[in-house]
Amino acid sequence: MADYSGYQHLLVEVREGVALVTMNRPQVLNATDARLHWELTQIWRDVDRDGEARVAVVTGAGRAFSVGGDMAEFEQRLGMAKAEAFAATLQTMREAGAIVHNMIDCEKPIISAINGFASGAGLAVALMADISIISETAQFTDGHMRLGVAAGDHAACIWPLLCGMAKAKLYLLTADLVDGKEAERIGLVSRDVPQEQVLPLAMEYARKLADGPQHAIRFTKRALNQWLRLGGLASFDYSLALEMLNFLDVDMEAGMKALRTKSAAQFPSVRTAGPSHT
Q1: pLDDT band with cut points at 50, 70 and 90 for residue 274
Q2: pLDDT of res. 70
Q3: Domain over 10-266 is classified CATH 3.90.226.10
C-alpha cells in the first residue's frame, strides 16, 4: 500500500480497492495553492503504484470541488523580480502539465465527484477524469478569459473531444458558466444527479470498476486515451505554453484587479492589440 501520510491538502482513504481522494482546503473552496497544485501532480502516480487501490474517486471537501488557482499567490507573483517570476511560472507550467499527463498515464480509472463549483486546475482534475459525476446545481467555468490568459490548464486537450469544437469555443472564449445539467447535455460530463447523490453514485461506479476485470478495464482506458495522445496532448502543451506567455501580459494584471474588486475588467489589449499575424 502506498504511503499517503505526506500529503497536506489531500485526504486519501483506501478501502476495498477504492482510493477516495478529497481536496481538503474547504475554508478557501479548495483553491489550489502551491502545495495542493504540486500534490495534484503526485497523487495519480501514487495511486497507480498502490497495490491496494484499483480505482480512484476524487472530490472536494465542503461546498466546492475546487475553485482553481489561489489568487493570493498570483498577486504575489506580480510583485516578484523577473528571474523569480520566471522560475515560478516555469514551475507552474511543469506542474499544470504533469496533472494532465499523469491523469492520462494512470492505468487505473479515475472518477470525479464534482460536488460544487470548479475552475482552473480544479476543473482540469474534474474533466480529465475517466468518469465524471456532477451535481445538477454545481457550476463551473474555464475562467482563463476572466483573468486575461489563454485557456491552458486542460481544455484544448479534452473539451473538443467531449463536447465538440463549437461548444468548446463558445464556453472557452467567453468563460461563461456551465451548470451540471448543461454539462451533461453537451457531453462534458458523464452524469448529472441531485447534489446528495454525487458521491454515492461515484462510489457505486468505483465499486463496479474495482470488482471488474482489471486488465481489460486498464487496457480499455489506455486505448481510449490514445485519442488524447494522438492530438489532444499536442494541443494541450501548446495551449499551456501560451497561457504562461500571457502571465507576462498587462492584461493579466487587469484581470487580477477585476477579480479582486469584483468589477468588469478593463483589458489594455482592447486598445493596443494590432492586426493578427499568422
Answers
A1: low
A2: 79
A3: yes
